Amino acid sequence: MAVKKSSQVHLSPEHMGLARIDETAPGCLELASQMLQDNHDKYHMYFRDVAGHNHIPHSILSVIAMGGGPKELRRAYDDGTAIQRPLPPVDTQAVQDLKDPEKFMAKMLVLDGYTTFLAFFEQEIDLKGWKAVVNEYCFSRTPLAEALLSQLFEGLYHPIIHLGFGIEFDQPSIVAEALAHAASHDPGNIDQFFLRSEKLARSGSVKSKPLAELYTEVRDNEKIRGAARLQDGPFRGQGVLKRAMDELISVAAQFQVLPEDLERGTAEMMSCGAYTGAAQKAGKARKIDFFYMHLVTCSISLDVIMRQSWIMTKDKIRLLEWKGRLDLVWYAANGSAQMRAEDVIEYKPTLSKGMDWRGMYKAALNIHDDGHVVKFIRALKNGENVVRPFERSQNAASFPVTGDMWFKMAQICYDSTVNIGEENPNELSKKWVWGAGFEPAWMKIPDLESL
Fold this sequence. Notes:
Elements: H1 28-42, E1 46-48, E2 52-53, H2 56-65, H3 70-81, H4 92-97, H5 101-107, H6 114-128, H7 130-139, H8 143-151, H9 154-168, H10 172-184, H11 191-202, H12 211-220, H13 222-227, H14 236-252, H15 262-274, H16 290-297, H17 299-306, H18 313-333, H19 341-345, H20 357-364, H21 372-387, H22 405-417, H23 439-442
Antiparallel strand pairs: 1-2
Helix pairs in contact: 1-2, 1-3, 2-3, 2-21, 6-7, 6-10, 7-8, 9-10, 9-17, 11-14, 12-18, 14-18, 15-17, 15-18, 15-21, 16-21, 17-18, 20-21, 20-22, 21-22
């Protein structure tokens, strides 16, 4: 029986990731490929039933892109494996059933269906090629493609982040994982938000506005601001949509991208998403919000997708608009935190003092966590690269994060996460603030005076 290519991981020097600074040491691609293969063959996409995604591929591929060596790769792999669950069994009959779009849709949204969807997408990719499969199952505008496209953004963007890594590193196995991830993920009911926002935008009844202005509209809307609940926990995105769907749609529909503005729109999304790093609290130690962080880590995946010649412009525009609109939802879901640019611009670094981007990369690669730190820092560097050409444009006000603010936020991230959880992994959550727009979330963060 022939080995399926789509179930095999083979990293190559032709696809080494964006925002690179240093070259990867000899032997690292082979080591990383084996680690990714082990993850693919052994571990579930969900290490727990609620808000528990497997980040091993994200972590390892970030290390590769950032020039890490064998030590850093082993650190990334070991930090991720301890909590993982084994793959559920494949339902072989269901794999065949999934060829029927109606049966496919009927079996979606069940976490333990992941392995069955994975086997199905591997078959499809072996037959058609991974680019054709992505186009068919995400962009063909069929009912199934519409459902799967929306699901890519579920779980705080995790399936589309995963897809971005698969495309960036040209790995069919990781593309298959991402599509299976989207198909099996439990729903947060963002599909209606996407489709209704899109319908309103296309109606011609609302004008386009810069994304930065829409963040302000979200914060100034009392109904939206009052709809956020800290007690919603990881489901806070669903909660704010449940309580203020119409109001969020009215704002989000104003983010509209023309074909000729695709590059500018991508940069705008990146800069505005990164501005949530300025969601700080007067008198408190500087922290990055865990939820807002994902607006940034997902941005590099969108940039990867925007660079693909095999994806049609209309589909790129749709993805970009959906990403910008969902960013507004997650901004609202965390209490529409006040952005304090001065806390970033005037930040006095501690452990990262004197570092440049190369030093930052090298230091961050040694931090023990599940990949969030390195993903965030590389995405900031990529954002700096993408936004730079627009900083002095006629619409410069649409880009709230420019210049050395990108590196300052990387320093805040590094200084506020390094050493936390080194002795006790149960304290890893203390690396972040968990709801920057909510007063109680800051009560657990040290005062600046105590540092």
